[in-house]
Design a protein that fits this description.
Length: 375
């Protein structure tokens, strides 16, 4: 949701040519903003927003309930970008200080402002029938809401439900840099692969024991998605991947999928989506930077949405809920013309606020973050 750190235009990237091996073209830790990844981030936030506004409402379209794909893509993007930074800079003497100060400047201000505004509104209008009771404020501000949701079996207000993914990412940021720093280089690749397998197994076990909510909300049941992003970063930095291999990956994936389906997915069908979606996302990230046919990710529109994706992801649910409540005295839906109109208004308002946040708050903070340099 929030992996970007800087700005760069597409001209700073060499254009891919036939047969070229996939290699890193820029150090992500320098604060460069990669066009293809911004485009992928735009795809992710649009899929989440469309699902929440037009799919996951009472009279929504079932075909549009694909927000989970955007969440998986966000996780893979975060794993890829953070993994790249760690692999590039983990030997710097001031790595942890710079890494966490940059992360804090990127994540906390927008997050805390959104929380304060949302919880403040709920406090003022809490008696309204169209407002759900949130979890305790400290759980949101300490990024522990996913534990509270899993423990209690309740999600609190839908307005702040997407923040569970921020909690998972923050827990990932606290744990993974330390692990990668202390794992010997020769053992790093086996360690990443082992981590993916263990987290996937954890998801299966939690689901099979009836802890379905826990299987979807905790770091150790989502860690395989983030680690697949880290694996992509490792591949890009350490393994030359010819374009012909990239072209064969989809075919090989289908073969592997059939084999895995016979061994695992037949008895655990939910694991199919939890595994293949991030694998496909990872393939997109690698192919996009070395395969010209995925140049649609460099679209100006998608990159624009990618730039504002963090704030847009956080506030689109509160904006929709507030507008439907204040204007129509009800919860978000698209069953009537007025409801559709309010939902479309929420789209415009959410995008406008996110764009303002990007220009007035996030970009200045990113410039401040880039002043903190790795040694």
């Amino acid at each position: 949701m929030n992996g970007s750190e800087g700005v760069m235009n597409g001209s700073e990237w060499a254009q891919p040519c036939a047969g070229r091996s996939l290699q890193p073209r820029v150090q992500i830790s320098s604060g460069a903003r990669i066009p293809e990844l911004d485009g992928a981030r735009g795809v992710a936030v649009l899929s989440v927003m469309i699902a929440h506004y037009f799919g996951e409402v009472r009279h929504g379209f079932a075909v549009l309930t694909f927000g989970w794909v955007g969440v998986d893509l966000f996780f893979v993007l975060s794993g890829f970008l953070i993994g790249s930074i760690i692999l590039e800079r983990k030997d710097s003497s001031n790595f942890l200080a710079v890494f966490y100060s940059r992360r804090s400047l990127r994540i906390l201000p927008v997050y805390f402002v959104t929380l304060a505004a949302t919880l403040g509104f709920i406090w003022l209008y809490g008696s309204a029938h169209w407002i759900d009771k949130p979890l305790s404020a400290p759980s949101y501000f300490t990024f522990s809401q996913n534990f509270v949701m899993a423990w209690r079996g309740e999600i609190g207000t839908l307005w702040l439900l997407p923040t569970w993914t921020l909690a998972v990412e923050e827990q990932f940021y606290l744990l993974v840099p330390l692990l990668i720093m202390f794992i010997p280089a020769r053992a790093l690749l086996p360690a990443i692969i082992t981590g993916i397998a263990l987290c996937l197994l954890t998801r299966i076990l939690l689901s099979e024991t009836g802890a379905d909510l826990s299987s979807r909300l905790l770091l150790f049941s989502n860690g395989h998605i983030l680690l697949i992003g880290v694996l992509s970063a490792y591949i890009q930095q350490h393994i030359k991947v010819p374009e012909i291999i990239l072209r064969l990956i989809p075919v090989a994936s289908m073969v592997a999928l059939v084999a895995l389906d016979v061994m695992i997915f037949t008895t655990h069908p939910h694991v199919l989506l939890a595994f293949m979606a991030p694998v496909f996302s990872s393939y997109i990230l690698l192919a996009a930077q070395g395969w010209a046919k995925l140049s649609f990710l460099r679209s100006r529109l998608l990159r624009s949405f990618g730039a504002i994706s963090y704030c847009l992801y956080l506030l689109h649910q509160p904006v929709n809920g507030v507008l439907h409540g204040l204007i129509l005295d009800g919860r978000p839906d698209i069953a009537t013309a007025p409801q559709i109109l309010v939902t479309c208004t929420a789209v415009i308002v959410s995008i406008s606020i996110a764009a303002l946040s990007w220009a007035a708050l996030e970009q200045p903070l990113l410039r401040l973050a880039r002043r903190k340099s790795y040694s």
